[in-house]
Amino acid sequence: MVKPKNSFRFYVIVSFFLASIVFLSGISIGFLINDFKQQDLNEDLASIKDSVEKNEVEIALMDYLNDNISCDYLNLRLNSINERVYDLGLKVGTYENSNGILNEDYSTLKKSYINSLINNWINVQTAKKLCNLNYSTILYFYTFKEDCNLCEEQAMVLSTIKNLYGSHVMIYSIDSTLGLDSVNILRYSYNITQYPSLVINSKTYSGYVSFLELKEMFE
Prior knowledge:
By secondary structure, this protein is an alpha+beta fold.
């Protein structure tokens, strides 16, 4: 039996049509997954922003009332908030490294996240003076991977330091590419001219800092 001449063309067209449906479905699912991830980050950020703002009021009250009795409570609150901030930072890093679709909404979310980080860092600095708390704080300034060969390695070192020292070391990863005024003020104040750069307990360290160097500082 002789097959019609156009049967092969028919199968090619059908195959192409089905492949197109699968491809477009994949893109749609990708958008949907990213939307869900972004919504999850948004909810976490809203919760942390609320906690940071409440913490700011608590610190202001203690300062106004000259109440050192509440320092133990403040210490517990700071530890709790900082761990949640750090966990959210890990989620943000995972989201960005998973080839997600980084849209304008995400950029707005990231800016809000960075401002919350800075606000939390200010609270910690104030609490350290108010209650003589023994925290070490690190501001980690980074930029795009293509503009910073050692930023990814620096982030891994800081993650190891965090795992080693836990709540005694508070790390704030500051994306310097967002054009935020708050970030620009910090960069100017601490003379951040290259990436990566660290500000450890208000002292600037320009360029990559190794694990052994950091470990020696904290010990």
